[in-house]
Amino acid sequence: MDIAKPELKSKRRLVRIFYLAAGLVIVALVTLGLSRLKAAAPTVDKTMVWTDTVKRGPMLRKVRGLGTLVPETIRVIPAATDGRVEQRLLLPGTAVNAKTVILELSNSELQQSALDAGFQLKGAEAEYNNLKAQLDNQLMEQRSKAAGVRSEFHQAQLQQEAYDPLYKEGIIGELIWKTSQVKAEELAKQNEIAEKQVETFAQSIEAQLAVQQAKVNGQRALYELKQHQLDQLHVRPGIDGVMQELDVEVGQQVAPGTILARVAQPAHLKAELKIAETQAKDIAIGQKALIDTHNGTVLGHVTRIDPSVQNGTVTVDASIDATLPPGSRPDLSVEGTIEIERLADVLSTGRPVHGDTDSTVSLFKLMGDGSEAVRVQVKLGRTSVNSVEILQGLSAGDQIILSDMSAWDNFDRVRLR
Predict the structure, then answer these.
(1) Which of 28, 114, 116, 213 sits at 20 to 30 Å (Cα–Cα) from 198?
(2) Is 38 within a domain?
(3) pTM to 2 decimal places
């Protein structure tokens, strides 16, 4: 028969409690220890990142933009008068010279007004000739009268000269002698007046003819204007080049100022570049530019900077300083690089993915043998297309990761393999 031993059961219960408490303490300590451990550094494939070395020396600042080749000279040809398109003689892309007729317009009212102007000019010229003939006849009459007076005056002079010795010798009386003297004096005055009348009338002829000549000149100018407008119905480009656009169709009625065509000179092209507004602030007229046509490069220089910003970019024109590569034509896509300045002695490295001018960024710097990289704060200065100035945080010889490392923003250290 078994005998119950209460003290044995109590001892076993205490042992179980002790083991349970010890287990809880151990679990708590392990949990606390694990919570204090740092997360393991992630591993990054070294072949998948782009690295560069910080160096000290000269740095060339550049900006880059995409654009197109455009003609430096584009002539827009507007309609000079009302008209109807009768013929399109050429198509876009055709080479033309300054006098090539590209369109034929018609305007019956203009043709009629040109005829009227021609008749009015002829009428004004006829009036001028008629007036001139009349005035010439009147002048001849004046001169004829003056010649008659002059003749009488000379006869009176001769008579007086003949009477003078006769009067002194007493052959003729004093009355006859004085009468001849008075007659000569009166005819002298009449002769002087007749000469002045001829001179005054001749001067008035010039004035009267000048008035009529002004009318003739006015009619001639109107006639020439109408003829010029008629000639402009034969539309010409006015420059040598290639016709880019022909914006009207046969039968279309056009008003003065309507754009008919555009002609460009393809031999004189420039690059029209679109530069990001954040990079355009340091661009200046005259700076060197390198234009890549994707079929060769050519040097140029900045000639114009658009004062406005459109869609986040500034338009910059670069004139071409050398012969363009074969195949260069208007609207060809190009890439332009503009030299801003040359820095003599600075710390610089390749431009990281997220690296704006005068900003502070965090980059991974390679440590030791390059198997590990740690995060450092770097202050950037001036930037270029592929490089950036280092102001603080790195030294010459440091290697950094330039690739996008945003996937590891929560880590301050990574392993490279």
Answers:
(1) 213
(2) no
(3) 0.57
